[in-house]
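Predict fold of Mannonate dehydratase; 395 aa.
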Amino acid sequence: MRQGWRWFGPDAPVTLDDVRQAGATNIVSALHQVPIGEAWSERDVRERQALIETTPAGRVPLTWSVVESIPIPDAVKRTGKKAKAEIEAWIASLEAVAACGIRIICYNFMPVVDWTRTELDFITPTGATAMRFDHERFAAFDLFVLERPGAEADYSPQDMERARAVFDGMTKEEVAEITRIITSALPGSTTEPLTIAAFRERLESYRGVDSRRFRQHLIEFLEAVTPVAEARGVKLTLHPDDPPRPLFGLPRIASTAEDYAQLFDAVPSPANGMCYCTGSLGVRADNDLPEIAGRFASRIHFAHLRATTREGDGRSFHESAHLEGDVNMVDVLKELVAEDKKRSAGETIVFRPDHGHRMLDDLKKTVTPGYPAIGRLRGLAELRGILHALGAPPT
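Predicted 3D structure, encoded as tokens:
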């Protein structure tokens, strides 16, 4: 397996030398500066690739192995194959990436919001901080800040009573903070927060798009792009929903093993693959992570390895240290290693420590939410230790 590290570009607080010192060799990156829906140019991809792969004298070489992500425009999610121009632009980006020899592309198909949390610096018992999703705070936002029409149908009377109590206890500053956090969780990771009015409009644009239609739109997208990917030797890897359940009354269709099975049955191309994210899938107690890894082993080309701890009734959770929480990382890695050993050197699984606690000196710095250097450094070291113990030291 190949050690990866997500790098957000030359302006990111974590540098390429930081990545080298962490021990990673494969970079996961994207052209975040390109607006969603606009085609990437081969020139821009090569410029970023040269920045990553031009090794200063005496430094460890790095390889840009995974693109994460080429965001899928909203029009594709809402209308499927009718969004011809947007799909063609996405294919052009794929072709630019393939021309540069990058063979793995990660993407997601979550409507309106990408990963969603209610807190970015939840204080853990060690004093480190983690990202957290608090169901009651989320319900308070949905019901009483966003005031989404029809939201009451998604919550029990008890849920609404608790959400009201939470909302009544929030200060103006806390309301502003949770609004900023949730409305910033947009595809592309660098999008400015939406206003509440704009957020409502975005949700309204999905009226009538249920899970059946939404899944069909993803299938139509894959039917258009996988022949191109297959012809160019590119593996497309769909990231699970995060959290893996509907939010804001919108469907989510990459949350369980059966969700993936339907997509692989509908589009059986070997280019149609999976980004195996233990943190996202692990939020659901009914997702058997080692079983999922074994079942879809041949489809896994990229792995996000992190752990979460489910709280209370399982609807709230927080990010754990990589070997803690509700993920059995040893059994997961046994399955991935078994698959990895079947592959040639250029086809092995790229994994990265996903997210990480904000700890030590990172508590004093500005960091990208979920991506501090030291917490990920600890995670990668722990994952590397398991792989060595399994007799499969990573490259």
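The two ends are 6 Å apart (CA to CA).
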